[in-house]
Backbone:
């Protein structure tokens, strides 16, 4: 029953978000991110510590969410554009089974990690109320920016946020592509 409640809340949030454009990025004080513990599609457990030292774009999404599906190709283009840089794109599928996610991925090839949040525990812990919601974390695992709603990740404000985060990494220069 809990998963259904989360799905209902996410659906209401999705309807609200999809009726308007994403309002832009919310900049956050550099506070530690909540715990993240999820399984990838091979069953391996992943945590934020797996990505320490990199800027992390953590995207909460679902295969039934049209705005989520519209932004997935831009996340893949961003991954390709930023190859070789200290950026990790991680998508976490909320309240879905591995079979549902694999069915989508059989049609849309993505080269970044997909994690499963089948019980929505991460979705709740991160206080995600609408899909897609994306958190941009610095190399120390602190949330720096949040975007509720879809965007084109390989252009405009989104690309500027990612470029800025990469340039701000201590002791690392951002190689422009």
Residues:
């Amino acid at each position: 029953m809990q998963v259904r409640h989360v799905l209902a809340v996410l659906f209401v949030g999705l309807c609200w978000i999809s009726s308007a454009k994403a309002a832009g990025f919310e900049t956050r004080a550099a506070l530690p991110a909540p715990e993240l513990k999820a399984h990838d599609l091979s069953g391996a457990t992943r945590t934020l510590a797996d990505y320490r030292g990199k800027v992390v774009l953590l995207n909460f999404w679902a295969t039934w969410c049209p705005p989520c599906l519209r932004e997935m190709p831009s996340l893949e283009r961003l991954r390709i554009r930023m190859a070789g840089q200290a950026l990790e794109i991680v998508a976490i599928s909320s309240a879905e089974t591995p079979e549902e996610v694999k069915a989508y991925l059989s049609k849309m090839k993505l080269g970044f990690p997909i994690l499963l949040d089948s019980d929505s525990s991460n979705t709740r812990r991160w206080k995600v109320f609408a899909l897609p919601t994306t958190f941009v974390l610095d190399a120390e695992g602190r949330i720096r920016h949040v975007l509720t709603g879809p965007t084109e990740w390989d252009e405009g404000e989104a690309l500027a946020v990612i470029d800025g985060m990469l340039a701000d990494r201590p002791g690392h220069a951002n190689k422009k592509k």
